[in-house]
Amino acid sequence: MIAAVLLAAGRSSRYGGAGDTKLLLPWGPEGIPMAAAVAATLKAAGLGWIVAVLGHRADAVGAALAGRGVETVLNPDYADGLSSSIAAGVRAAPAGADGYLIALGDMPAVAAGTVSLVCRAFEAASPPAIVVPVHAGRRGHPVLFGRAYREELLGLSGDVGARRLFSRHAGRVVEVAVDDPGVLSDVDTEAQYRAAAGAD
To answer: What is the pLDDT of residue 16?
Structure first.
């Protein structure tokens, strides 16, 4: 079983929405909150267990995810950076999980088919594997880590996420070529949101 960890705790500081969060911005033809759109993509990809890590505006983001088959966990240390949210999600995952798919709440343009490709590549790979989608020669998200990396994921610190594991375990990284620019498209600014939402 692959456990999906949806990171939805950030302060949206680069977006410029003081006191608010970009994760509640409307996305897609139905205009559902961005975090909910990412959760829907994970569900559509066939992931049966998803936990959303909450922090900034936890009540509002949690409400946006309510009724969508997503568990939630609060990261009280979300201001310490992305790594603390990864650790909170991995810690909350079922003990028998084979791997952890780390998905970002501000990357709603990733296609469900791409997530499925990443999961299938993980299942076909020799453990311990780290599977990452690649588009136009660039690595993107979401990234799937085998359970062998659990302790390292729990021990991460700072705001660089799990990036350091790529260099530490370079020989175990499996790249999956995808025709999906969404794996490179995160919404950090209002201009990026308008451009991505207009193209959605």
So the answer is: 56
d(CA 124, CA 184): 24
pLDDT in tens, 109-167: 999 999 999 999 999 999 999 999 999 999 999 999 999 999 999 998 877 778 889 99
From the centroid of its chain, how far is CA 41? 11
Query: What are 7-25's pLDDT values in tens digits?
Result: 999 876 555 554 478 899 9
98: Cβ contacts below 8 Å, ≥ 6 apart: 1, 2, 146, 147
Band of pLDDT at residue 56, cut at 50, 70 and 90: very high
CA of 179: how far to CAs of 2, 111, 128, 183, in Å? 23, 10, 25, 9
Cα–Cα distance, 92 to 168 (Å, whole number):
24
Separation of alpha carbons 165 and 59, rounded Å: 32
Distance, CA of 186 to CA of 88 (rounded, Å):
21
Query: Looking at residue 5, what is its pLDDT?
Result: 98
Long-range contacts of 24-27 (CB under 8 A, 24+ apart): 24/57, 24/60, 24/61, 24/64, 25/187, 25/193, 25/197, 26/197, 27/108, 27/197, 27/200
Tokens representing residue 142 in the block: 């979401």
